[in-house]
Design goal:
Elements: E1 2-9, E2 14-21, H1 23-36, H2 43-53, H3 59-98
Antiparallel strand pairs: 1-2
Length: 99
């Protein structure tokens, strides 16, 4: 028999878990779990099976994320234009002092 004993102490309380399983039971569980999943045979079935797992975004989410992306791009563009203008101004001031 496989025995697993875990004791957790976090200062507030103690938890003790004891798990006993027979090795034969573990093998039975593995074979039962493997039987539940039907493996697709062809590539088309594999693709279809994988795409069935995908959670596609709703139209509302797509609009929301698209607007957020466009707003972020505009904000970053303005930021970099501002930084560029600031450096141009500073370069002009330093160049005027040096000349």
């Amino acid at each position: 028999m496989a025995k697993l004993k875990v004791k957790v102490e976090n200062g507030l309380d103690e938890i003790e878990l004891v798990k006993k399983e027979d090795k034969k039971d573990l093998k039975k569980k593995k074979t039962n779990d493997e039987k539940k999943v039907k493996e697709p045979k062809s590539n088309y079935e594999k693709i279809k099976y994988e795409l069935s797992k995908v959670t596609w975004p709703t139209k509302k989410n797509m609009v929301k994320y698209s607007i957020a992306t466009i707003v972020l791009i505009v904000i970053l563009a303005l930021f970099f234009v501002g930084i560029s203008a600031l450096f141009d101004l500073l370069y002009g001031l330093v160049r005027g002092w040096i000349s």
